[in-house]
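Budget justification aside, the reviewers requested a transparent look at the raw inputs and outputs of the sequence design task funded under Objective 1. We therefore reproduce one unedited record. The lines immediately below are the structure tokens for a 305-residue chain.
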């Protein structure tokens, strides 16, 4: 239920610290009210409201990743909580009439909190629309067989184009990386071991690559033995590291021939292109060109056939 809470410990400490500071300021600068003057209905109503906002905050932070929208929501609810907290303390401690800070905290923080929360909710709404579209597309992938490669169960090149375009529409230049990964001399493997064995190999390599990706990444079978990996919200350095990890995973893989039981070691190369603002098609072409250049530089090593 609160799987993401550890991501927001600093925000929670900050709000708790501010609430504690407000309590200390009230105790030091105000005067305690006699028991007979405490309005318990107000205490329950205002204290209960403050606790309810604190619970909302825990629920939201417990289910959201860190990021801009979460920050707006936290700020909004944080201000609202502090206003209600001061409102509750007010029931026990009277701030002298000359000091306006208590009044400001009680009355000023609430509209600011509501405005910030509203702003955060608008962005959350937009974010949800975009997530819904992604989910819809994923669902379509399973219904729309044109997009699925039956050998690897990955999306095909047409699915990659579609998803890449959607990703670029909501990304900033420089934050999306596209990796192309191609097995070396796969045609040689097919020739020596048969196309059926080649099919098994492709299937297992696709599973291996999937296991090495993050939750937000997308892998598609672009063509024969070429895989395209879309890395959203990723800088160039991280993209290069992930591409090297994929190469290493393939190179460390000891494929067992289904017919003979023989072990085959694979070699592979990658090409990575960082999105510079061009169209999805141009980005794919650039990633393919980088891959081809790397192939030429490496010279082709034979797949262990
Ligand atoms: N087993 C199998 N082979 C396929 C499939 N689709 C394409 N191929 C074969 O994959 C091979 C791809 O050949 P190339 O593009 O030259 O790749 P390569 O031999 O790895 O060459 P380099 O990448 O330059 O090392 C061809 O022999 C195709 O017939 C498939 O679904 N299953």
């Amino acid at each position: 239920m609160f799987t993401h809470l550890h991501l927001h410990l600093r925000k929670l400490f900050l709000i708790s610290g501010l609430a504690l500071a407000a309590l200390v300021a009230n105790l030091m600068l105000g005067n305690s009210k006699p028991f007979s003057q405490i309005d318990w209905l107000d205490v329950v109503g205002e204290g209960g409201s403050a606790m309810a906002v604190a619970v909302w905050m825990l629920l939201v932070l417990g289910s959201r990743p860190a990021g801009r929208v979460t920050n707006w929501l936290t700020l909004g609810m944080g201000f609202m909580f502090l206003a209600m907290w001061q409102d509750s303390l007010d029931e026990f401690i009277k701030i002298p009439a000359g000091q306006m800070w208590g009044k400001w905290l009680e009355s000023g923080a609430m509209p600011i909190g509501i405005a910030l929360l509203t702003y955060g909710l608008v962005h959350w709404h937009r974010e949800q629309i975009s997530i819904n579209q992604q989910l819809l597309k994923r669902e379509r992938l399973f219904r729309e067989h044109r997009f699925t490669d039956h050998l690897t169960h990955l999306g095909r090149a047409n699915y990659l184009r579609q998803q890449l375009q959607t990703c670029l529409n909501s990304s900033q230049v420089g934050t999306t990386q596209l990796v192309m990964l191609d097995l070396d001399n796969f045609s040689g493997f097919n020739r020596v071991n048969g196309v059926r064995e080649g099919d098994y190999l492709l299937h297992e390599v696709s599973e291996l690559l999937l296991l090495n990706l993050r939750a937000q990444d997308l892998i598609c079978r672009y063509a024969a033995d070429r895989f395209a990996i879309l890395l959203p919200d990723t800088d160039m350095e991280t993209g290069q590291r992930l591409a090297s990890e994929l190469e290493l995973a393939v190179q460390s893989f000891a494929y067992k021939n289904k017919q003979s039981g023989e072990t085959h070691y694979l070699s592979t190369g990658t090409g990575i292109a960082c999105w510079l603002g061009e169209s999805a098609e141009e980005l794919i072409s650039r990633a393919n060109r980088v891959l081809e250049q790397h192939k030429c530089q490496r010279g082709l090593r034979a797949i262990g056939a």
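Residues 151, 182-187, 190, 195, 198-199, 202, 224-225, 300 surround guanosine-5'-triphosphate (CB under 6 Å). The two ends are 50 Å apart (CA to CA). Computational costs for records of this kind are itemized in the attached budget.
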